[in-house]
Amino acid sequence: MAEQTISLNLGEFCVLASFKRVKYARIRISPDCAVRASVPWFWSVERAREFIASHEIWIKKTLEKYENLALKENESEILGQIYELKFGEKFADLWNTAPKFSAQNFSGGDTAPKFCESGASDSALKFDANFISDTAPSATPNTNSTNAQSATPATPATPATPNEILAQNLAKFNGKIAVLESKIYCVSEIEFAKFKKFLALNLYKDLIKLYLPFVQKSVNRLVVRDMKTRWGSCNSAKGYINLSLKLVEKDLRFVHYVVLHELTHLIYAHHRREFYDFIAGIMPDFKERIKLVKNR
User: Fold this and answer.
1) Whole-angstrom Cα distance, residue 71 to residue 83?
2) Which candidate, 82, 70, 209, 187, places its Cα nearest to that of 134?
3) pLDDT band for position 229 (50/70/90)?
4) In what order do the strands lie in the sheet with 14-20?
């Protein structure tokens, strides 16, 4: 039987139920309040409905939690911080008071990576480069072990803070966007969308350079796209890394983890113990970082 997905209306909420070749039924609720269920392909529709209905209390509580956490229409989350967005006003005086960042610490501006926006269907930004040829940060890869794919409990160079990262990338949009405390002032929504994509691409590229000395593999392409169901993916054979545009909204510590997670797939194309042991050797608190997005 081919996999099929149907919509089940259970009164107060609707569930997309997918009949798959799985052993156990599962229910997932995403932060956008979409309720999805995966059930064995041989189940009847009525059995699927009964299974979902038996978890009605949990579903309602989870939906209520996400609804309370949902951003307002005029808000946006960037690097774990919620900002109030203000569009279409004259903010000439703000450009002189907004945070500045010294040129020697700034990797953007005229030296920012060039990127092209591909077909708008997937909102993808593509950056083609061999990151291993760039000047690597002062991280300490494992050079003493005979196994080049084994990480040591070394610590990467101290990364930039969220405020520093924002300041680095705002220089490209001087006169169009300013961030002051918990507010983002921008000339238009289009310009804000451009800034968000630019910020994501630069941040992900910097983090790849930060962790690449530990992986000792080559990244041949980075693609940033508006993913709906995952934070990232990796094609280890081609050296391609894909990262979600929405990832730039999350806590910076979690962003670090996702980048390292995908880079580790260049070595281990699975999620077995050695995969996570490698990550733990570089990022011992990775499990705590994963929990940072559980509530949002």
Assistant:
1) 10
2) 209
3) confident
4) 4-9, 14-20, 35-40, 26-29
Strands of the sheet containing 81-87, edge to edge, are 75-78, 81-87, 183-186, 177-180
Longest dimension (CA), the chain: 65
Q: Return phi, psi of residue 68, to 5°.
A: -70, -30
Quickly count: other Cβ atoms within 10 Å of residue 231's Cβ.
Answer: 19
What DSSP line would sit under 69-87, residue for residue?
A: HPPPTTEEEETTEEEEEEE
d(CA 168, CA 218): 26
What distance in Å separates the CA atoms of residue 129 and residue 133, rounded to the nearest whole number? 9
How far is C-alpha 58 from the geometric centre of its chain's CA atoms? 27
Are the C-beta atoms of residues 174 and 195 closer than 8 Å to each other? no
The DSSP element (H or E) to which 210 belongs, if any, is helix 189-215
Per DSSP, the chain holds a count of helices (H) and strands (E) of 7, 13
**pLDDT for the residue numbered 62:** 87
pTM for the model: 0.65
Tokens of 144: 């003493």
